[in-house]
Amino acid sequence: MTARPLAVAGRETAGAPLIRAEGLTKRYTVRTRAGRRTLTAVDRVDLSVGAGRIVAVVGESGCGKSTTGRLLLALESPSEGTVTVGGRDVALLSKKELRLLRRDIQPVSQDPYDALNGRMTVERILSEPARVHGVPLGGPGGARTVAELLDLVGLGAAYAQRHPHELSGGQRQRVAIARALALEPKFVVCDEAVSALDVSVQAQVVNLLGRLQRELGLAYLFISHDLALVRYLAHETAVMYLGRVVEQGPTSTLFADPRHPYTQLLLATVPRPRARRQGRDEQRRAAVSAGDLPSPLDRPKGCVFSTRCPLATDRCRAEEPALRPVGGEGRTVACHYAETAEVAA
Amino acid sequence: MAAVTTAPDTAAAPARTGDTVLDVRDLRVSFGPGLDAVDGLTLTARRGETVAVVGESGCGKTLSALALSGLLPESATVTGSAVLDGDQLVGRSERQWRALRGAKVSMIFQDAATALNPLMSVGAQIEEVMAIHGTHGRAARRARAVELLTSVGVPDAAVRARSHPHQLSGGMRQRVMIAIALAGSPDLVVADEPTTALDVTVQAQVLALLRESTRDAAVIFITHDMGVVAEIADRVVVMYAGSVVESGPLDEVLERPHHPYTAALLASVPDPDAPLAGELPTIPGRVPPLGERAEGCPFRDRCPKAREKCGQRPPLAAITPGGSAAACWYPENTAAAEDGRTADEEGTP
User: Is residue A237 a part of any domain in this protein?
Assistant: First the structure.
């Protein structure tokens, strides 16, 4: 593999994460019938992704996971906090440097049908990034060739002449992944990259993403609402709820012993073919009675999850819990009762 | 060519459900010669029973749902028989369908945001169904609409009834669609991936609601997700490339799948409780597109167990006394069936 350095060369300190977000906050002003309101989509999020690592961000609609992805892709600028790539603050980059940065960080989005230009052939779609960035196809320092890319994602050379509408959903997502890899990026943000696919096809694409990550040494931010999939792919997982990270840690630790009540409910509501025999009924009932997500415009005071948490106390409704280390292994949890919390114990 | 379809023995279904309200026999939806998107669907559904129709994209499950609600495009030809409480659904004119839709058959779609009318309040949309199907008096309809919204778990129903769809969350919109579907007290509710677009905690809520609110109707529940099937279904019909490859009671299908496709579908659902073992199990290849289906067993190309005999099409044959049937020459898990084990021994859930 070519070990191209980051296109935007920073004064990289050894061992520094590839990409790091600190105190990342994004607020939007929205107009409602009650006048102008502030919507805090992402609230003081710290996240770092090392080279060759997969970090998952999970949570439900409106939790800020996609906004976090867009901030890391430098598609939006944070209201507060910083994103650094290779030690350089993205906000301080010149336009030219930002363009170079885009070679290193690439998105794969949910709906490949919307993301691919229907009038282009697959060949043109895959050679477009090189054209846009003025990079030759192939050769040292050049972009990956169409043949290389098709091979990487397991599509035959014959697909080069097809149009997106001639492909199945899974094949389209493979093309979208191939395009993201054209410029040999270091970091790929996958935002619900498999959630529009059938379960069986989902598994194929997840396996492909895992294989590519290992073979090419890529780093991913894997944004998903599907905890069961995340478990197969991510080294670390951050659970978000209404803009806040409520639990974060090594994926295996988080799944073996979720400490935040929200993580416990999320895990309990994953539909399982064998659920009936697994005795998670109590937790499921708790999730069912937990009601609807509050609007991000009306974030609860104190703990953001307190309005839906079966264990919430007066303290939770008054005092916001800090994200703090719980039980070692690098896990942090934002719950006053993280050590003992058991939804439906 | 007419596939041989042997109807599974539904008489053995548990007695907790009522009479058969829907009886579908050899239903076909065709878009021309050799283009049978649905190629012989046979199923029955009793009052209070939820029958899940499961399969990947392109297996014909959505077209089956549209055929049962008279919403197919004009280019489709429907043959076979589908009798709903004495009424033949196949061959009805649009005018004849209108008398049934809402009153005897209603639909719940995946995307409530596009299925609902954005210009009408949700209360008015519920009242509209009642007005068409004979609930007289505006005040009575209004009161009933609020009652229905309350029953599907919409808080402050009297206030929310005046909301427009865009003012509601995805979960609330889906609840409204369920309320609309139930407004005419239908005998049959056809739900096409009704929770696929929802968040998991909301999905759990909507599935629980569907289970509780459809006790008086038969439900055909279309989904690609075996996890959801386990949550909602009493019986399961697995479709592949337009035809039924397996059907049976939920527990039998989940625990002792007979058709290799059913087994593969089950295995491809990531199980958060299972130990991690390398990659996710997948089904290699894909559903053959319409018009490219080979003779014989449609799953042959992707089946790990395919042999020469699979070049002939296997009939849907009864396998267990519990009512399981599979269209496979070499069905799996049949030894258990021969031991005489039935779903009854598992205890009632």
Answer: no
The number of domains in chain A is 1
Query: What is the torsional sign of CA B116, B121, B122, B123?
Result: negative
pTM of the predicted protein model: 0.85
How far apart, in whole angstroms, are the C-alpha atoms of residue A205 and residue A171? 9
Q: Do A199 and B224 lie within an 8 Å CB cutoff?
A: yes
Q: Confirm or reject contact between A317 and chain B (CB < 8 A).
A: no
The pLDDT mean for chain B works out to 86
Determine the 3-state secondary structure of B96 from DSSP.
helix
What residue in B sits closest to A280 (Cα-Cα)?
B273
Measured CA to CA, the distance from residue A225 to residue A203 in angstroms comes to 15
Residue ranges and CATH numbers for the domains of chain B are 19-112+188-271 (3.40.50.300)
Q: What is the pLDDT of residue B132?
A: 86
**ipTM score above 0.85:** no
Interface of B with A in 235-264 (CB under 8 A): 251, 254, 264
Yes or no: say if B167 and B176 are a contact pair by the CB < 8 Å rule.
Answer: no
End-to-end CA distance of chain A, in Å?
Answer: 50
- In whole angstroms, give the CA distance from residue A236 to residue B276: 15
- pLDDT value for B7: 43
The DSSP output letter for A164 is G
- Put simply, the answer to whether B264 touches A200 (Cβ < 8 Å) is yes
Q: What is the pLDDT of residues B97-106, one digit of tens each?
A: 998 988 899 9
